[in-house]
Amino acid sequence: MSDDAIDEDAPIFAIAAAAELAGMHAQTLRQYDRLGLVVPGRTQGGSRRYSLRHIRQLREVARMSAEGISLPAITRILELENEVAGLRREKRELEQRLRDELQQRPGARVFAAGATGAVVTLRHGARVRRATEIVLYRRPTDPAPADEPRATPPR
Asked: What GO molecular function annotations does the UniProt record carry, in alphabetical order (predicted)?
């Protein structure tokens, strides 16, 4: 994080300042806290402290309420938005892990079975000759499923 960046989750605003920034009465913020709608951080003494993210949520609640959406519905909308945000974060993290994993591999190698049964390494993009037989190994005690095609000898 750079020196100019602002931590949007830092609980820095007292209830009076948060109410003014959100354009609401402090009692409304207390009610939203009791309902679990917008739950601020707390100091060691128990005072509420709001972050910039909380202020944005309060403004969003006010907008939805003005449009006639009930408080239980707003609560559900906010829960779903938080869940979506979490899933997006998780998706980004998984995509980054996948990119990191792919970069650590020196190059994917492809293998094929030669006519004698030896393992043959193929270059990326190389084709296997038609005369090469590929056989799926199965232990002798395991019967092949009826719908699985059987390997046929080369022509």
From this structure: DNA binding; DNA-binding transcription factor activity
Q: Coil, strand or helix: which one is 119?
A: strand
Tell me the pTM.
Answer: 0.56
12 and 54 Cβ atoms separated by less than 8 Å = no
Output the CATH code of domain 15-104.
Answer: 1.10.1660.10
Cβ distance 28 to 19 under 8 Å?
yes
The tens digit of pLDDT for each residue in 107-128 reads 555 666 777 777 766 666 666 6
Measured in degrees and rounded to the nearest 5, phi and psi for residue 76 equal: -65, -40
Crossing angle of helices 15-22 and 52-66, in 10° steps, is 50
Closest CA to 128 of 136, 137, 140, 119: 119
CA separation for the pair 63, 56 (Å, rounded):
11
For the chain, domain boundaries? 15-104, 107-155
